Amino acid sequence: MTEPNHQLAALQLAIMRVLWKRGEATVADVREDLHDERPLAYTTIATMLAKMERKGYVAHRIEGRAHIYRPAIDQEKVSRSMVTDLADRLFAGDVTQMVAHLLDGCDVDADELARLKALIRAREKEDRDAR
Q: What biological process terms from GO does the record include (predicted)?
């Protein structure tokens, strides 16, 4: 079974990052955390959270008068979905080309290269063991 395709817009992703970090948050909490990078009105965030809930991205409970939101989708699944979509759209699914582009365009230090090599070795071992 294929995983759902979670393609979040920039504001949705920013809101989800707040919720993933906090675990749960009110509209005011989200607004406060986003204020430096995105000074948005309370109503804008409340409206976006309501839309995100209709899409199944978040859920809420009511405590007094406050709606307290929590993530309803897993950060790892969203990341995987968005990266897969990026690879498909920009690199026609060619992961090698995407990784080469990242290595050329980003400042990758020796520790990061070592971690990448370890990931590749682990994947090669998984593939050998699966045969």
A: negative regulation of DNA-templated transcription
CA-based nearest residue to 62, from 53, 21, 22: 53
> pTM of the entire structure?
0.81
List, for residues 72-89, the tens digit of each pLDDT value.
999 999 999 999 999 999
Instruction: Give 113: exposed, middle or buried? Use CB within 10 Å, 0-12, 13-18, 19+.
Output: exposed
Pairing of strands 58-63, 25-26: unpaired
Give the domain ranges of the chain.
1-91, 94-131
Whether residue 15 contacts residue 52, with contact meaning beta carbons closer than 8 Å, is answered with yes
Assign domain 1-91 to its CATH architecture.
Orthogonal Bundle (1.10)
Here the tokens at position 107 are 């400042």
Q: Give the length of the chain.
A: 131
